[in-house]
Amino acid sequence: MINLFLTYIVPGSVFFPILVFLLHRKTATGALVLLFGYLVMSAIVNITAVVLATLHHRNLWLLHVYTVLETVILLLFFIRLIPARRAKTVVWSLMILFPVACIVNWLFLQNSSNFNTYTRSIEAIIIIGVSAYCWVSSSAETVRMRWTDNPVNWVISGLLLYFASALFLFLFSNYLLANTQTKADDPIWDIVWVTHGFLLVIMYILFGIGFIKSKNAR
Amino acid sequence: MPDNLYYLIVVGMLGVFLLIALMIMLQVRNQNKLLYQQQKMTEAEIAHQKDLLQSVITSQESERQRIGADLHDEVGSVLSSLRLLIEKHAQTRTENDDPSFTSQSKSLIDRVITNVRQISHNLSPRISGSYGFFDAIHELADTVNQSGSIRLKLDFDENIAELPIQENTAMAVYRVLAELINNTIKHARAENINISVSVMNDKMDMTYTDDGIGFPADRHQAGRGMGMQNIESRLNMIKADWQFPQKNAKGFAMKIAVPLK
User: Fold this and answer.
1) Are strands B252-259 and B241-243 parallel, antiparallel or unpaired?
2) How many domains does chain A have?
3) A 122-151 residues with CB below 8 A of B?
4) Where are the alpha helices (DSSP H) in B151-225?
5) Each residue of A12-54: pLDDT tens digit?
6) How much is the ipTM here?
7) Domain that holds residue A201
8) Residues ≥6 apart with Cβ < 8 Å to B166
9) B28: which chain A residues are within 8 Å (Cβ-Cβ)?
10) Distance CA A112, CA A123 (A)
């Protein structure tokens, strides 16, 4: 049951916001299109990972590629939301520096047989920081609509909930991987990954709600 | 026994999740509160603007009445005295005096008296009670019909004469009708205006229609006009309801429901 949830249901939940976007594609414009691009990329990576795992091939290298693509697309998404020029420059700089850091990490520190815990946790901190900045700057602006009517609020909440909560997991992924053989019978071991799966599903549901609310932003 | 790291990771994840969820809830509450305050401020601003406009209309009305009364009472009576004086002087005229002077002077004074009376009446129509109100409306209709370019038809309920209408209500409705007629003449390119009035349950229902080019498709475009703003302010002052039915039909139509008590 847990295997079904982790292998198929969690990766498949990415199709929920994708379908919602397609149903609301006339109203979901601007930054939300970039978010849709991110979801499509996630779906492709998830399918590839499931296929590789089914064929008993290693798929951890995908996570290294996914981390770079995810960060770049999400930062592009945030650039569309940030009005301040200086903050935009910082985000552009991060978008160039982070892939460089990922390549250095892959070549010299954590190769494709390890989790990229260093860069994945840095990614989480970047996303948390930029999300929090967007939140604060949008609060400082004149409020035009109810919080729940603004699609961006739902998306940023989803990102914050996922990346902040999963940060601990990103930090200790290699530890978990190293102990997989000896601790696989520990029920807590399953709970860690199930919790992560639920966080991911919550994020995708919040993205879907954001797409539904996109008609209010026009 | 060493700590179970898996357990610590799960607890850490749940703790951060709760913290972020709490932050989101606070943000929702804070932003909605801010929005509520902004809406209240906007409503207060609109109410203030309405009050200001109503004050302007009220003071404009009282000033019109004062000028109208002064013209009628002061200037009118002085002109009447002047006419009498000229008549009296004519009786004592000598053979050298020009006889046409008296008739020309009297004729000019009569014209000035008529004009002054007309201006005074336009500034402040004598409206008190239902009779005065409907007389004033009839006079307005007569003036429009005399122009010949447009035909105004009135359709009144027989029972209306028995109902008391407060003077400020009557004056507001009169001004609204005058403004609507003015709009039709200026903008509508209409041939006919129809005003029908009926009274039921202490409420006067009035329907104004014309067969002109009609209301602009964008309601707000029409709402921006100063004339329409004045109409809405006057109707607000007497707590009347109004609507614009048959949006897509030919011509303009407005239904007004005026409470009489």
Assistant:
1) antiparallel
2) 1
3) 135, 139, 142-143, 145-148
4) 167-183, 219-223
5) 888 999 999 999 888 877 888 999 999 999 999 988 888 888 8
6) 0.77
7) 2-217
8) B260
9) 147-148
10) 17
